[in-house]
Design brief:
Length: about 250
Amino acid sequence: MSDIFTVAGLHAGYGAGDILKGIDAAVPQGKIVTVIGPNGSGKSTLIKTLAGLLPARQGEVRLEGRRLNELTAPQRVRAGLSYVPQEYNVFRNLTVLENLKISLEFMGGARTSGGAVLSDELLALFPELPEKFRVRAGALSGGQRQMLAFACALTSQPKVLMLDEPSAGLSPKYMADIFGAVKRVNGRGVSVFMIEQNATEALRISDICIVLANGRVRLCAPAAEVAGMSDVHSLYLGDARETTPPLGEAA
Ligand SMILES: Nc1ncnc2c1ncn2[C@@H]1O[C@H](COP(=O)(O)OP(=O)(O)OP(=O)(O)O)[C@@H](O)[C@H]1O
Ligand SMILES: [Mg+2]
């Protein structure tokens, strides 16, 4: 299985000292890779660096073999890498339709030949969106707003979709809807790189799990394997200290 998206030796940070201290990661073509880890371990910093919002101080990011380091955030979107931030991912004072139009306009997406804002593919993925076209995004439920953010990110027809905690703050019902949508998007051939705190639910739809701790990859293993670990909670609740031996290596 070839990797569509690779990260090698990545360092990044905000001031003196690096938050990310040499990250290696890869998304195989068509797979879902989920990153878990304690609060403050650098998950959002990683995704922001990959999206081009924070410069890499060392290391390399490649999409389909093409080096992305020198590309701006919008250029990365046009190269096929889309990103949904955890917060502020839609314009709340604009309607659903206006949000979609802006995404099309500024993210390099193309309208359908009939001029429709939603392609048949996006309509099939998010059939409930048209009836909300005139609703202000701020008036949607958290789950609906997240669906809109997904749809906006998909207007550019990305090869890799990056999601920062898509289920954060949602009730269990909406959480299931969100992960169902991620799975459906992935079913259309979009590879996914997702950060999640709801590890048990996220790992159910994931192929690979990466555990981040203190800006380093602590573990990278098949999602089913990580989900089955008796101490999976400690991996993202803050017990995954650098000083403990890597899982799997302990007797
Ligand atoms: N804009 C910023 N300026 C300075 N430091 C920052 C900034 N954003 C994050 N940090 C610091 O970088 C570290 C990693 O933060 P990051 O947001 O990447 O963690 P996270 O794993 O996403 O945490 P959470 O689970 O809480 O979302 C933290 O120590 C944080 O205080
Ligand atoms: Mg975060």
